[in-house]
Amino acid sequence: MTDSLEPPYTFDKLRTAKKKEVIKEINNQLENFERLPIGGSDKAVHALNAQFLMQELARRDQNRQANTMVACTIVITFLTFVLVWRSLCGH
């Protein structure tokens, strides 16, 4: 794991980290969570860290989906324009 994703997490660290790094750190935080005894003072910290990282992955997926939707909308708009143009020009 690179030093880029060691706690404390910052907005910039989360944005620039690669997906594999984020997943590896999620697994690391969950392993630390499981190793601690019930009532361990750091247990909640590891769970919260894992949750932050999972939310970052969800944000990335949502951005990818939104970008795909925008691209599809642009293509559909262009194709609609072409169809209207062809029907008006009589081709």
Question: Can you characterise this structure?
Answer:
- The protein has 91 residues and is mainly α.
- It has one domain (3-89).
- Helices cover 77% and strands 0% of the residues.
- The chain has helices at 11-16, 19-35, 43-89.
- The protein is rod-shaped, with a radius of gyration of 22 Å.
- The termini are far apart.
- The model has no long low-confidence stretch (mean pLDDT 90).
| Cα-to-Cα separation, first versus last residue | 60 Å
Biggest sheet, in brief? none
- Low-pLDDT stretches are none
* Backbone CA Rg: 22 Å
Number of strands: 0
SS content category: mainly alpha
Mean pLDDT: 90
Shape: rod-shaped
- Strand residue content: under 5%
Count every helix, treating DSSP H or I runs of 4 or more residues as helices: 3
How many discrete domains? 1
Order of helices and strands: HHH
Helical content band: over 70%
Structural features:
about 90 residues, 3 helices, rod-shaped
Describe how the helices and strands are arranged.
Layout: H1 11-16, H2 19-35, H3 43-89
Explain briefly what this protein structure is:
With 91 residues, this protein is an all-alpha fold. The protein has helices at 11-16, 19-35, 43-89.
